[in-house]
Each structure stands twice: as C-alpha cells, then as structure tokens.
C-alpha cells in the first residue's frame, strides 16, 4: 500500500500548464461502474492516508406521506442503532476505536451515509456502514429511547432562523413531496414506530436507488463489497409522488428584530441546461460574500439594496434544484422596519436583469465565480465525495471538473436573461419570519 | 453535473443541523448527551446588527440536515508549513543520503545492531549470574564452619603398629600405621569368605596407612583398637570383631568400617574430609 504524505509529494514544475496535475505518480482516475441491478459504484484511488466511503440513497423527506412524516429525521438519528451484524455499542465503540466517524447527511431528495477513517481500517468501518444501511433492526425500545432526540435536534437546528424559513418556503411552494419538512413535525415526536422505519427502509433503500462511492479505496474492493453485500433489496422501491408547485406564502410572526424573508418562483430541474443558466444568474445577482469583510462590489442585489436602506442587511440569490423541480429567488435578512424596502429593492434588481440590464462582462465575472466555487468545493474529499455521489445517483456517470467548467462557459447572456424572465413571470412563493409588521405580502410585491 | 455541486446545490454546507457541530458563524454548539427529561440549554441568541456579522447569512441553497456519530470538536487545519527537522547528526553514514534506498545497507545495519545487542546480552547474563551466585552462596556455610570439616594429620607422629584416634566431624577417626606383617596378613585373606567382601588394597591408598571412621556399623559404638580375635578392632557393645583393615569378621555388624575421603599431601601429611 502506498501512502501519500506532504513531505514526499513530488515537485511539480510550474511549466506543466494544461496537464492535469496528479497527486502522486501512481494516482488513478475515477472509476465508475453500474451493476445490472442498478447500483452505481464509483471510486477514486488517490492514495490518501484517510479514506472516505459513502452510501448514497435516492430517498428523503419527499418520499414520506402524511401518515409517516418525520420518519427520515428519525432514520438520520438512528444510524448507530443495533443492526443484524453489530450492536449499537459495537458500532459506536468500533468506529471510535479506529478513530473514524459515521455521519448521515440528508436533503429532501437524498441521504448519504458516510464514514471516514484511516485507510488501514477501511474493512472494519465498511462492515459497520454496510450493516447500518442494509440490515438495521430498529429494535422498538431503542427507537423509543431515541424519540426525545428528535426534539433536541430540531431545537438546535431551529436556532438558526434560516432553517425555519426554508422549511416554510418549501411547505408554501409545494403541495406534496417537496413540501414535507426535513425535521420531524412536533405532533409526530414519540409516535414514529419501528415498523414505520422498517417499512421506509424496505421500500426506499433498494439497490437501484443506491450508489456506493469511495475516495482513497480501490475500485475492485468496493465492487466486491457491493456485489456481496449491497445486493439485498432489488427493485425500484416505492415511487415518490411528483412534486406539484403551488406558490403560496407562510409567515411566522415572532419578536425577532431581524426579518428573514425568501421570495422564490419555480426554477430548474437538476442537470438541465436551464439549471446552468439559473446558477449563473445566481452569481450575477450575488451569492454570498467572496472577500472576507468585503463590500460585495460585484453583487447586484447588495448594491441595489444598499441604495434602499442604510441599516445592516444581507441579501443573496437563492437557488436549489431537485430532480423534478427547483426554486429560484431571493433571500433577505433585514431590520424589521426596512423589510419591505429591502425585499422590493432586491426584486427590482432581478427585474432589471430580466429586462436585459446585464452585460457580458457581468456574466463572465459570474461564470468565473461560479466555476471557482464549484472547483473549490470539490477540492476537499468531503466535497468531492458529495459531488461524485450525487451525480452517480442522478445519472450514473461522472462529469470531470473541466467538463463542468465548460458547461458553465457555454451559458450565454441570453440564457441568463431568460432565466431572470422566468423568475419574474413565474408564480411566486414566500416565507418570512420575524417582526412582520412592515413585510409585504406576496400580492403587494 | 453542474447544478448538483454548485454552491446552490443540495449539499451546500450553508446550514447543517449537526448533533455535534464545529462552532462557526451558523453552527450552534450542541450539548453532548441528552436525557429524556432534562432541559437542554440552547445557545442564547446573538443579535446580529452590523453589516459584517450579517454578511453571508442569507440562504443561498437548499437545507442539508446532518447528524454524526462523532463530529469534529475542533477545526483542523492543514499544517503544510511544518518542516521536518534535520536528523543527519544522528544518522548512520549508510543512510545519510535521503534519495538513496536504505535497503542495500539494511542488512549490515541490522547485523551490527543485533550483534551489539547479543554481545551485551551475553555479558549482562554472565555478570548477572555471578552477582546472583555470590549473594546466594553467602547463605551457605561460612569459612570457619567449612574449615572444621577437614583435619590434617602429621603422619610422622604415629609410630608403626600404633592406632591413633582423632575427633573429626564429631566422630572418632582412626589412623593406623600398619606393620608389614599385618599388611601381608590382610592381603592374604579370602575375600569370598567375608560378610562384606572388599580386598584390603581396595580400602587403602598406601598399604601402611589405614584410615577409618571409628564407628561400629552395627549400632554405632566406638571399637577398641588392637583388640579382638583378628588383630584389628573389637566392639565391646555387642561383640563385633574387625580385622586390621577394618573389615567385619565376626559379630553382629553387617558392614566394614567406613573409609573416609582422604588425601596424602606431601610425605608427611594426610588431609581427611
């Protein structure tokens, strides 16, 4: 086995310009295979001292029904409960003993169980990962003991007002599926049963909806593991309902002096050409700070809102893509008295772009920012694992970073303007929290 | 697959609900363990009122909720400015060159190390054995006790035909200077007729000197010299007759008189014991 360490990294001459710089002479490219039962296996052997393996499953809160809301939240928390091959104590102790970690990341559409460990201990930790994803037992007493944790987890998450706003936004924008909250509703805490968890896992954790991804591990090892252990449930599982956009608004009045508001319209589907256009539009309008303590000179939204108010605020373009729908709009944080002006100013900026008020230079700047952000996100092994896994789940292939950069470059200014037009003309949804005395309703915008 | 991983994508680490989180601007600290009924103290809200503290807080992408078995407790940085110190002062000559393989000299290096270790081990074992035996042998008999176990006898003090008795190890020691007649008489005795068959010459080193332990082999009395029917010793207790060689001839004793370990040192001295 080879190990990669900073000290023995070979000196790369700066004249090697367009060539891909390899981490070590024997570093390999990404290998991706799709088994006949639909399971996708992807791995990148970069000889890193730490390996990261993830099981990605195309399931999430959108696959819940009104009778079993909150199941995915409990499933997230139940990742270290007893399984058929290992008890809860053994999983926790075993993973800790080798210095690894087990985590579950979930969005509305996918769940990722990932383990990180030193490469010597991959076998141990892989055993636990497979146990957790394929053979959980959900013993009734363990599940019952875990239910109070739902409340704590939710309380900690909702300390950030953004979480509440985004949950409300989805509940307002969609009729079903994507409207389901990521966090368990209060009335369901204590009522989720072990049978519901089992049922959910049986119907959703099927081979055709899973991807096994590894970084720092050989492809043959992963393939062998997948063929032996991840073949248990075949079939497509329960199909989710198609998300239907409705466009509503939810307002939560509280005593918070800061108003968080999101105004969105239906956006683009993952992987479509439109999605690229919306991403570039997001960066044209402004998607977060790029320079620490900078004044966001290139961010149209910030510049526009700064003319409307002098008090502290923050605004950014909001963009999220799902497999059959998406949301695009603006997210603002403002002082309670100024909320109306801030939101209107931000929407005016988007209107300006829709009317063609964007230059090629702006679009190029935005493309560069987007490319930089994307490429930097796949620099870490965590980001890279997420990227490979998500793409493997959606399409079973992998786009190399340079191909992705080219896709970004192929977006034209006209595409960006059209995307802005789609937002302006689309049916809006809104969610707001805080002291909403001065926050306009959707029909007032 | 651009829109998947662009900052707007589902896994944008903007807001994540972690059970144990790295403290950052948007990640509240979480309590370690929860009990069903205990109240969990949450981090009090911090008012965000200035431009810098608000910067970056607007949501850009979808929510990702995450829980972890053991999340990081601190922020890890890449320490790529750490230099490895120069250890060349401690290296052997064979491995001074950092670019050459160390395999070619590994046999000789290992051999030297093992040889030194083995030699030191042997020397240590030798020293240890000596030290231990010195301590343990100090528990055995001391020199004055050992000295009492030997007796030195001056032979010129004993005239011919005379039997002298000495006290040795608590027992009487008979040293008899035999005449030639006695010697030839004892040599001529038929060994097969004896109760304890032993030839005279087997019992003595020099035929004129016979050294015996003067304890009767019957029940332990001291025989009288120059008495008895055979010209040797006679035990008065039960009537055992010994000859001039100390062999039993008549009487209840089963064995001949014991011949101790002795050595002639020089012409004139014998050391018994």
UniProtKB/TrEMBL annotation, chain A:
<keyword id="KW-0007">Acetylation</keyword>
<keyword id="KW-0496">Mitochondrion</keyword>
<comment type="subunit">
    <text>Component of the ubiquinol-cytochrome c oxidoreductase (cytochrome b-c1 complex, complex III, CIII), a multisubunit enzyme composed of 11 subunits. The complex is composed of 3 respiratory subunits cytochrome b, cytochrome c1 and Rieske protein UQCRFS1, 2 core protein subunits UQCRC1/QCR1 and UQCRC2/QCR2, and 6 low-molecular weight protein subunits UQCRH/QCR6, UQCRB/QCR7, UQCRQ/QCR8, UQCR10/QCR9, UQCR11/QCR10 and subunit 9, the cleavage product of Rieske protein UQCRFS1.</text>
</comment>
<keyword id="KW-0999">Mitochondrion inner membrane</keyword>
<keyword id="KW-0809">Transit peptide</keyword>
<dbReference type="Pfam" id="PF00675">
    <property type="entry name" value="Peptidase_M16"/>
</dbReference>
<dbReference type="GO" id="GO:0046872">
    <property type="term" value="F:metal ion binding"/>
</dbReference>
<dbReference type="InterPro" id="IPR007863">
    <property type="entry name" value="Peptidase_M16_C"/>
</dbReference>
<comment type="similarity">
    <text>Belongs to the peptidase M16 family. UQCRC2/QCR2 subfamily.</text>
</comment>
<feature type="domain" description="Peptidase M16 N-terminal">
    <location>
        <begin position="41"/>
        <end position="186"/>
    </location>
</feature>
<dbReference type="InterPro" id="IPR011765">
    <property type="entry name" value="Pept_M16_N"/>
</dbReference>
<protein>
    <recommendedName>
        <fullName>Cytochrome b-c1 complex subunit 2, mitochondrial</fullName>
    </recommendedName>
</protein>
<keyword id="KW-0249">Electron transport</keyword>
<dbReference type="GO" id="GO:0045275">
    <property type="term" value="C:respiratory chain complex III"/>
</dbReference>
<dbReference type="GO" id="GO:0005743">
    <property type="term" value="C:mitochondrial inner membrane"/>
</dbReference>
<keyword id="KW-0813">Transport</keyword>
<dbReference type="InterPro" id="IPR011249">
    <property type="entry name" value="Metalloenz_LuxS/M16"/>
</dbReference>
<keyword id="KW-0679">Respiratory chain</keyword>
<dbReference type="Pfam" id="PF05193">
    <property type="entry name" value="Peptidase_M16_C"/>
</dbReference>
<keyword id="KW-0472">Membrane</keyword>
<dbReference type="InterPro" id="IPR050361">
    <property type="entry name" value="MPP/UQCRC_Complex"/>
</dbReference>
<feature type="domain" description="Peptidase M16 C-terminal">
    <location>
        <begin position="191"/>
        <end position="370"/>
    </location>
</feature>
TrEMBL record, chain B:
<keyword id="KW-0813">Transport</keyword>
<keyword id="KW-0411">Iron-sulfur</keyword>
<dbReference type="InterPro" id="IPR004192">
    <property type="entry name" value="Rieske_TM"/>
</dbReference>
<dbReference type="GO" id="GO:0051537">
    <property type="term" value="F:2 iron, 2 sulfur cluster binding"/>
</dbReference>
<keyword id="KW-0001">2Fe-2S</keyword>
<keyword id="KW-1015">Disulfide bond</keyword>
<dbReference type="Pfam" id="PF02921">
    <property type="entry name" value="UCR_TM"/>
</dbReference>
<dbReference type="GO" id="GO:0008121">
    <property type="term" value="F:quinol-cytochrome-c reductase activity"/>
</dbReference>
<keyword id="KW-0408">Iron</keyword>
<dbReference type="InterPro" id="IPR037008">
    <property type="entry name" value="bc1_Rieske_TM_sf"/>
</dbReference>
<dbReference type="GO" id="GO:0005743">
    <property type="term" value="C:mitochondrial inner membrane"/>
</dbReference>
<feature type="domain" description="Rieske">
    <location>
        <begin position="186"/>
        <end position="271"/>
    </location>
</feature>
<dbReference type="GO" id="GO:0046872">
    <property type="term" value="F:metal ion binding"/>
</dbReference>
<dbReference type="Pfam" id="PF09165">
    <property type="entry name" value="Ubiq-Cytc-red_N"/>
</dbReference>
<keyword id="KW-0479">Metal-binding</keyword>
<dbReference type="GO" id="GO:0045275">
    <property type="term" value="C:respiratory chain complex III"/>
</dbReference>
<dbReference type="InterPro" id="IPR006317">
    <property type="entry name" value="Ubiquinol_cyt_c_Rdtase_Fe-S-su"/>
</dbReference>
<dbReference type="InterPro" id="IPR011070">
    <property type="entry name" value="Globular_prot_asu/bsu"/>
</dbReference>
<keyword id="KW-0679">Respiratory chain</keyword>
<dbReference type="Pfam" id="PF00355">
    <property type="entry name" value="Rieske"/>
</dbReference>
<protein>
    <recommendedName>
        <fullName>Cytochrome b-c1 complex subunit Rieske, mitochondrial</fullName>
        <ecNumber>7.1.1.8</ecNumber>
    </recommendedName>
</protein>
<keyword id="KW-0496">Mitochondrion</keyword>
